[in-house]
Design goal:
It contains three helices and seven strands; from the N terminus they run ββββαβββαα. It is an alpha+beta fold. The chain has a single domain, classed as Nucleoside Triphosphate Pyrophosphohydrolase. Helix 2 runs antiparallel to helix 3. The longest helix has 21 residues. It is globular.
Length: 144
């Protein structure tokens, strides 16, 4: 089986107690925004671009680097080995509206942490939400 390796970057975008997810009706999926790193881009630049392209939100602040993990899967006779790198992000202005609808295949939605974790289709993406939540909880604990 032919192997395809690549890096994808994305964002766990939060607004208060909500997480931004992408609903993809054509595949009955709920996802986090992410995509391929293009030539000459840093992982952070790729993550910001992908969030913009897939959600329409353009004014983002990167809060933290959530790290990376390897995700492997088989699809259409090929083996994929994808290094995923995610960043915790927030909107510069919580009242911001998407500048466009994003890519047509996705419907952005703000879900609670619990609802996002339950509804995300893939376990690897649930892990990113868990890491983001742990980071925020540590920050809040350190403030006390």
């Amino acid at each position: 089986m032919k192997e395809h390796r690549y890096t994808a970057c994305g964002g766990v975008v939060v607004k208060g107690d909500r997480v931004l997810v992408l609903i993809r009706p054509s595949r009955s999926e709920v996802r986090l925004p992410k995509g391929h790193v293009e030539a000459g881009e840093s992982n952070e630049q790729a993550a910001i671009r992908e969030v913009l392209e897939e959600t329409g939100y353009s004014e983002l602040i990167v809060v933290a680097d959530l790290g990376e993990q390897m995700v492997e899967f088989d699809f259409e006779g090929r083996h994929f080995a994808r290094t995923e790198h995610y960043f915790l992000m927030k909107l510069k202005d919580p009242e911001q509206r998407p500048s466009s609808k994003g890519e047509l295949e996705f419907d952005p939605a703000w879900l609670s942490w619990t609802e996002a974790t339950k509804k995300l289709t893939f376990c690897a993406e649930k892990e990113w939400v868990k890491r983001a939540c742990e980071f925020i909880n540590r920050q809040e604990h350190d403030k006390r």
